[in-house]
Amino acid sequence: MTNTPTQDVPATVRQIDRLVEAGCELVRLAVPDRQSALSLKGIKSQVSVPIIADIHFDYKLALAAIESGVDGLRLNPGNIGGKRKVREVVAAARDHGVPIRIGVNSGSLQRSILKKYGHPTPEAMVESAMGHIRILEELDFNLLKVSLKSSNVSQMISAYRLLSERVDYPFHLGVTEAGSLISGTVKNSLGIGLLLSEGIGDTIRVSLTCDPVEEVKVAYEILKALGLRQRGAEIISCPTCGRCEINLLALVEEVEKALNQITSPIKVAIMGCVVNGPGEAREADIGIACGQSHGTLFKKGRVIRKVAESDLARVLIEEVRKMVS
């Protein structure tokens, strides 16, 4: 999701371009006012990725977003007005083939549901989602997907599991308000990763308090770790120990930075000693197993040559680029 003011079209387009370069395939934009809704048309005309409008409370913003050519809406039909207003939005979405994502968040559940359950629970989130789903189903609209987000990882996982037993709509996964880069990455990886490993989830959004590009990077690492998507260099490197006889941290950082723009999938092993190093390097597409003041270069399981420590980064980067060119 972008964090630029949507009405600032040039800034938003620049950020979307950066997100797409990082591998983002869907971009959601906040639409808090009419000017933002009208700006969507100009943004849409300058980008290549599908655009989803994030709408809260005002059905007119949803209608304006649809007219601006968005590819999807994120809104809760129970929160945008009475039946007539919902019917107008549904009719416009149907006419334009625009799907609607129902987005339930534990931090903004209806008061009636909170009164019933006392506080946000997985059951409360599912009841909220089912209420919104029924509104659309009664209008014979089923081009929808659902999200059940919470900052509590266990709560989020339980909610998705419960809802998956009741409906067969696509799920959008996310841990909301997950925090900064390190803590947020852990929460997102656990919540999204566990559900994906169970076959639950169709699209994902990693939520982090930082540059949105970092969200895309973390999302790909989750998918790569589960073998669901391959993109760019996967770096395999050891945590180091007393057996390591080179500056492995500096080596890994230099190689990772140099390969950051590669999009072709390739597995690169950078190992610090002779215990696990040769085995990991052989299993990677390319790898180096380091010893004292040198490393052994492997390609597709074969030993290629020994490389001096001072040349390790340069040689590995050059060889990877040859393999993906």
Would you kindly provide a written description of the structure presented here, covering whatever features stand out?
The chain is an alpha/beta fold and 325 residues long. The chain is built from twelve helices and twelve strands. The strands form three sheets. A five-stranded parallel sheet has the order 1-2-3-4-5. Helix 1 crosses helix 2 and helix 3 runs parallel beside helix 4 (83-96). The protein is elongated, with a radius of gyration of 23 Å.
What is the topological layout?
Layout (H helix, E strand, L loop, with lengths): L8 H14 L4 E4 L3 H11 L6 E4 L4 H9 L4 E3 L8 H14 L3 E6 L5 H7 L4 H17 L5 E6 L3 H12 L7 E2 L7 H17 L5 E2 L7 H14 L7 E5 L10 H11 L7 E6 L5 H7 L2 E6 L2 E6 L2 E7 L3 H13 L1
* Integer average pLDDT: 92
Category by helix and strand content: alpha/beta
Sketch the topology as an H/E string, one letter per element: HEHEHEHEHHEHEHEHEHEHEEEH
Helix proportion range: 40-55%
Please count the beta strands (DSSP E, at least 2 residues each): 12
In short:
By secondary structure, the chain is α/β, with parallel strands linked by helices. It has helices at residues 9-22, 34-44, 59-67, 83-96, 111-117, 122-138, 153-164, 181-197, 212-225, 248-258, 277-283, 312-324, and strands spanning 27-30, 51-54, 72-74, 100-105, 144-149, 172-173, 203-204, 233-237, 266-271, 286-291, 294-299, 302-308. 45% of the residues lie in helices and 18% in strands.
